[in-house]
Amino acid sequence: MALMITDDCINCDVCEPECPNDAIFMGPEIYEIDPHKCTECVGHYKEPQCKQVCPVNCIPFNPEWRETPAQLQAKYEQLQAAQQKT
């Protein structure tokens, strides 16, 4: 399942550069995560890097975007393939 950033976000800017898929971006008020790009760092790291660095623990799993480890791996592979084409 993809991750999400809650309203507890303090816009500290530490999560965005840690995302290997460029899934984190500044929204209208707080940072947001694009669920189409979020692989929970599958394919890159053992644990989501944004969760590791967040000082306020505001990055839970998104209950509306459920994915299996196999689906996350497939998404990672698709993102990598698209990146290599550019």
TrEMBL record:
Pfam family, one: Fer4_7
GO terms assigned for molecular function: 4 iron, 4 sulfur cluster binding; metal ion binding
InterPro entries the record matches: 4Fe4S_Fe-S-bd, 4Fe4S_Fe_S_CS, PSI_iron-sulfur_center, YfhL-like
GO cellular component: cytoplasm
Annotated keywords: 4Fe-4S, Electron transport, Iron, Iron-sulfur, Metal-binding, Transport
Obligatory cofactor(s): [4Fe-4S] cluster
Provenance organism: Undibacterium oligocarboniphilum
Protein name: YfhL family 4Fe-4S dicluster ferredoxin
Domain 4Fe-4S ferredoxin-type, chain residue ranges per copy: 1-29, 31-64
Domain of life of the native organism: Bacteria
